[in-house]
Design brief:
It is built from 3 helices and 5 strands; from the N terminus they run E-E-E-E-H-E-H-H. The chain has a 5-stranded mixed β-sheet with strand order 1-2-3-4-5. The protein has 114 residues and is of the alpha+beta class.
Length: 114
């Protein structure tokens, strides 16, 4: 499924579900999930539906999510491998990125019940 040139994807924060979603033509095409820990937003999972793969939507989603984190005065913790890789390529977020520690992963596992 290719995206028409005039159909700009929309990213929204669905705070009640602890995730940012990317919509294409009003349909959810993917998400990046997080949990908040004090002033840290801990990102732990990103996915794009197979029907929307290869369109650069994950990059758009994560960039807008991280921009929102900055605007909210929060910090980023990239447990999610996709978010971590994005941050390696986009150093403009380095000033608000915290390292993933054992303490954070233990905390996240407890929050997610795993």
């Amino acid at each position: 499924m290719s995206r028409p040139a005039n159909a700009a994807p929309v990213v929204r924060n669905v705070d009640a579900r602890h995730r940012y979603e990317i919509l294409v033509d009003g349909e959810r095409a993917g998400l990046t999930a997080y949990r908040d820990r004090g002033d840290q937003r801990v990102f732990f999972h990103t996915e794009i539906d197979d029907a929307y793969a290869g369109q650069g939507l994950a990059s758009i989603l994560v960039e807008q999510a991280l921009t929102d984190v900055r605007a909210a005065g929060l910090r980023i913790v990239p447990v999610c491998p996709y978010v971590a890789g994005f941050l390696t390529r986009h150093q403009e977020f380095a000033d608000i990125t915290d390292p993933v520690t054992e303490e954070i992963t233990t905390w996240l596992d407890a929050r997610l019940g795993r």
